[in-house]
Amino acid sequence: MNVSARFLAAWLCAVASLLSVQGVSALAQPAPAIPPSAYPVFVLNSLDDSVSVINPVDWTETRRIPTGKEPHHLYMTPDEKSVIVANALGDSLTFIDPRTAEVQRTVRGILDPYQLRFSPDMKWFVTVANRLNHIDIYRWDGKDMTLAKRISTSKTPSHLWIDSKSTTIYATMQDSDELVAVDLATQTLQWRVKTGAMPADVFGTPDDKTLLVGLTGGDGVEVYDVSGKQARLVKKIQTGLGAHAFRAAGDRRHVYVSNRVANTISKIDYQTFNAVSTFPAPSGPDCMDISADGKTIMVASRWARKLTVIDATSGQVVRQVNVGKSPHGVWTLNHATRQ
Predict the structure, then answer these.
(1) What pLDDT digit, counting tens, does each position of 150-161 carry?
(2) Quick check: 108 and 121 in contact, CB under 8 A?
(3) pLDDT digits (tens, 9 = 90+) for 240-262
(4) Three-state DSSP class for 84?
(5) Would 141 be classed as within a structural domain?
(6) Which of 48, 151, 177, 266 could join 135 via S-S bond, C-beta 3.0 to 4.6 A?
(7) What's the domain range around 221?
(8) CA distance 157 to 174
(9) Does residue 248 lie in a domain region?
(10) In the chain, what is the greatest distance between 2 CA atoms, to the nearest angstrom?
(11) Does 70 fall in a domain?
(12) Under DSSP, is residue 99 helix (H, G, I), strand (E, B) or coil?
């Protein structure tokens, strides 16, 4: 037996001895758990066809994940085991592990998934086709989706909201200036109402009685009473030019809206329906996520290729992180509640 062989035999004996004492292989021990504060932040680069993975400890971009064409929005599966990236021009969904940032799978044949959302009861998965003018309703079995109904809409469906009882889908029609409601059980259109110019994101209050709609073609947010058979406009909250995307603060009282043209973010009290503060957010603020403790706002600066990090208490920009072209959706597992 040569020296190398004797060394290998001795090493194997040592390993066997260790296994007999410990009962398990040291190599099979699970990796150390990632603390929630270190879960990666995902930023979609719509014009680079990629996802930037950000380390929130030192705020550096650690890698870029290729996706299908034009990823715009992303959403977590109900079991929080995957974050789903919707690749609008790629007609596909990319599933990513929200803890490790590893790509899990790609689902193809999903036509123009611009925006996406799960129903709270976890039975339905819904997408809007921004360029093809339809809403797709899929049955969700916890792993796979099956198309239940495709509903033709008016021009440029933009954003979605589903009520807490999983009964109604609300969707904005950006180029038709409309808000529509769809019954989930029957997959039929319930009503449509005219809105202000270029409605974008929509946010529902926890009691399901009121919807907020951001007007990208205007300077504020419209408030609709949806407790009756037809939506009724009850108020307009002036926030800033290009009111666009919502993100709840997590305290069940306040919601932020990004004003993309004004380069600001406004905080709205949705019990009084007043804007209680507005602070700077540079370079076309778009989608946001909020840390679980409610202290940090992470917003895509659409025109600057940056993720902007803002102190939610002071409203001051803390730092910016370089990402790809036209950053849009932002998400992290370490997030505040959605209402």
Answers:
(1) 999 999 999 999
(2) no
(3) 999 999 999 999 999 999 999 99
(4) strand
(5) yes
(6) 151
(7) 36-332
(8) 6
(9) yes
(10) 88
(11) yes
(12) coil
